[in-house]
Amino acid sequence: MKKALAAFALTSALVIPSASFASAETVIQPVSSNQSEVTITNLGQSANDSLFASQSQAAVINKGSDTSVITPMSTDGQNIYYEFKDVSSNIWSDSSLPLHRSGSISLTLVQSTGSWLNPATVSYQFATKDGSKKSSVLQVVGNVDSKNTTLNFSDVPKGTASNPVFLIIVNKTPKNSAGNTMQIYGNGYTTG
User: Fold this and answer.
1) Residue 140 has pLDDT above 80, yes or no
2) Cα 43–45–46 angle (5° rounding)?
3) For the chain: N or C, fewer Cβ within 10 A?
4) Is residue 89 part of a domain?
5) Confidence of residue 93 (pLDDT cuts 50, 70, 90)
6) Biggest alpha carbon distance in the chain?
């Protein structure tokens, strides 16, 4: 596991964090001079409810080849490792969390629009396929690409074989000055 994690970190620009965290309140994370200020906010469990109002979201989860699905880079039976690019709306993990995983899970990530004028605003949430059980939505505002950040979820629901838990990533980045939707890219992994 440690060798796989080290290899993953070296190949993905994702490094082990020194002091990054999320809580039930807004947190402003210290950043280096070449990274935008990063703000982490807990939006509560219902912030993504509009995504679950449509049956089409369950269909998106079930399509492994859909471009709006995060493709795991690898898994060790405990955690998922993923990457995504060119996302303008929302995406779901292709693989669910293992059924025995719930409660406290950390998500270490990088995210960016590639533009310092229009930093990424992205929300992260774990939810069952039907949306009936959800963790809090943690929103990260800022381009996080020279140093990663870690979100700590304490309320990840327990999934079942028929209704597993997936990671949902939603691009909430405001449109740029030309009125265009900013696309995001990133990668990350779960631990805990």
Assistant:
1) yes
2) 90
3) N
4) yes
5) confident
6) 47
Measure the CA–CA gap between 23 and 37, rounded to whole angstroms: 17
Residue 20 domain flag: no
Residue span of the structural domain in which 138 resides: 44-63+78-191
Task: State pTM to two decimals.
Answer: 0.76
Asked if 90 and 169 count as a contact pair (C-beta separation under 8 A), the reply is yes
Tell me whether residue 94 is in a domain. Answer: yes
Tokens standing for residue 101? 């995983």
Q: Element (H or E) spanning 81, and its range?
A: strand 80-87
Give the total number of structural domains in the chain.
1
Give domain status of residue 53, yes or no.
Answer: yes
**What CATH number did the domain enclosing 94 receive?**
2.60.120
Task: Determine the Cα–Cα distance for residues 105 and 192; give it in Å rounded to an integer.
Answer: 5
Predicted confidence (pLDDT) per residue in 100-139, tens digit? 899 999 999 999 999 989 999 999 999 998 889 999 999 9
Cα separations in angstroms, 128 against 2, 26, 76, 156: 28, 25, 20, 10
Backbone φ and ψ of 8, nearest 5°: -60, -45
Cα radius of gyration (the chain): 16
Q: Which H helix or E strand runs over 12?
A: helix 2-12
142 closest CA partner among 43, 38, 44, 46:
38
